[in-house]
Design brief:
With 466 residues, this protein is mainly alpha-helical. It has 19 helices and 6 strands. The chain folds into 3 domains: 100 residues, Fumarase C, Chain B, domain 1 (Orthogonal Bundle), CATH 1.10.275.10; 242 residues, Fumarase C, Chain A, domain 2 (Up-down Bundle); 59 residues, Orthogonal Bundle (Ribonucleotide Reductase Protein R1, domain 1). Helices cover 62% and strands 5% of the residues. The strands form 3 sheets. Strands 1-2 form a two-stranded antiparallel sheet. It has a two-stranded parallel ribbon with strand order 3-4. A two-stranded antiparallel ribbon has the order 5-6. The radius of gyration is 30 Å and the shape is elongated.
């Protein structure tokens, strides 16, 4: 098949070179964006009198039929084409004749592919926001159900202080909430239309770039044609945002994997989101969590691939930029699937509240509160710290918790202990008296959940109208 650029050449392209050069194998997923951009361009050409209104109508009608035929499966995007642009244009010319040859007037493949990628990336970013919104809704629902589900909080993977499951999950809500804001920022910056920039220096045709930008739902046209065709910042920014999302998913996955172990037993994975062993019949593996954790490195690799591709490129367009698509497509596909599957898995998990509570008790997470109790009774903090340290060591030797000790046993460590110590170091007291903003006390958690719900409802509305 003849290339779109064949006039300058007297020899056919070597087959190995052609295979190495062609991008149809991966950019065929841009068919919808390529056709939508071409429809907007043809409409503008007709409105500006660059082609006749009749020719514009014929081109637009032909493009619409190509789109319908591709989506119905009647028309296949074959490997004989160099890229998606040549596929669309060749089929258009075949269907409507010479009018199809006028579609590319005032346009280069450089601004065409820049447009296609922006349209595709914008659409997929919006879809990822929807998935992220579902995940946030799932987390918020679990927070509402678990303000009084007590568990140990950890530092260094050591039991530290008591908290609630709602408080623990709220930390992940904050992470994904920040991710949501980053996606919004990314969308805002990418939402400018490069179409009409030409190869690098615009065109002598009287294009109306504001018209095409408006037709395609952009905030406006880009303002520098060289930057327009060589900008891939929006892809790098999106992949950076996706890498952060994957990092947060991976951290969450790591905790769930740990909590699912026999040693912790904090959670029970639903059968629908687990797999077994081919040899060990007792196994129930948290494969979704493990795959999400593993695929995080894959998205990081996609980001580094694109950063490396772009780091030494002079202005304006270079063929290296064809290497933007595969890592971008892979990162988008991977992150989208991970967010969606993680939400489904999280919504079906059973939290073992009794085990969590017992773990907090047996882990001496109330030791700090016991020290604070002594301080209130007049014991200097450093002395109180030492007393409780010795007390914990005694409990370990006796296989008891602080609450298990009698008052006479406690007084052996300090005469300041009174009957009210048991209430002071109960899990409920330890958690519920923490009422500063951001702390796990249930009253404060309910206030925070109300704020998060208000934010999420507003963000969801903004997604629907964007």
């Amino acid at each position: 098949m003849a290339q779109l650029w064949g006039g300058r050449f007297t020899k056919q392209t070597d087959e190995a070179v052609k295979a190495f050069n062609d991008s149809i194998g991966f950019d065929k997923r841009l068919y919808r964006e390529d056709i939508e951009g071409s429809i907007a361009h043809a409409g503008m050409l007709g409105a500006q009198g660059i082609i006749t209104p009749q020719e514009a109508d014929l081109v637009i009608s032909g493009l619409g039929k190509i789109l319908a035929d591709v989506e119905s499966g009647e028309l296949t995007i074959g490997s004989e084409y160099e890229d998606i642009h040549s596929f669309v244009e060749a089929n258009l010319i075949e269907r409507i004749g010479d009018a199809g040859k006028k579609l590319h007037t005032g346009r280069s493949r450089n601004d065409q592919v820049a447009l296609d990628m922006k349209l595709y990336t914008r659409r997929k970013t919006r879809e990822i926001r929807e998935h992220l919104c579902t995940l946030l809704e799932t987390i918020l629902g679990l927070m509402e159900e678990n303000t009084d589900t007590y568990m140990p909080g950890f530092t260094h993977l050591q039991k530290a202080q008591p908290t609630s499951l709602a408080h623990h999950l709220g930390a992940y809500f904050e992470m994904f909430k920040r991710d949501a804001g980053r996606l919004d920022d990314c969308l805002e910056r990418m939402n400018y239309c490069p179409l009409g920039s030409g190869a690098l220096a615009g065109t002598t045709y009287p294009l109306d770039r504001y018209m095409t930008a408006e037709k395609l739902g952009f905030a406006g046209p880009t303002l520098n044609s060289m930057d327009s065709v060589s900008d891939r910042d929006y892809l790098i920014e999106l992949l950076s945002d996706l890498s952060l999302i994957m990092m947060h998913l991976s951290r969450f996955s790591e905790e769930l994997i740990t909590w699912n172990s026999n040693e912790y037993r904090f959670v029970e994975m639903d059968d629908a989101f687990s797999t077994g062993s081919s040899i060990m019949p007792q196994k129930k593996n948290p494969d979704i969590c493990e795959l999400v954790r593993g695929k995080t490195g894959r998205v990081y690799g996609d980001l580094m691939s694109l950063l490396t591709t772009m780091k030494g490129l002079p202005l304006a367009y270079n063929k290296d930029m064809q290497e933007d698509k595969e890592p971008a497509f892979d990162a988008i596909d991977t992150a989208e699937a991970c967010i969606s599957l993680f939400s489904g898995m999280l919504s079906t998990i059973t939290f073992r509240k009794d085990v969590m509570r017992l773990s907090a008790v047996r882990g001496f997470t109330n030791a700090t509160d016991a020290a604070d109790y002594l301080v209130v009774k007049g014991v200097p903090f450093r002395d109180a710290h030492g007393i409780i340290g010795r007390l914990v060591l005694h409990c370990i030797d006796e296989n008891k918790s602080i609450e298990d000790l009698s008052l006479s046993e406690l007084k052996q460590f300090s005469p300041a202990f009174e009957e009210d110590i048991y209430e002071a170091v109960s899990l409920r007291t330890c958690v519920e008296k923490r009422l500063t903003l951001g702390a796990p006390g249930s009253d404060m958690m309910k206030t925070v959940i109300g704020k998060e719900k208000e934010w999420l409802e507003g963000w969801h509305r903004s997604i629907k109208v964007s």
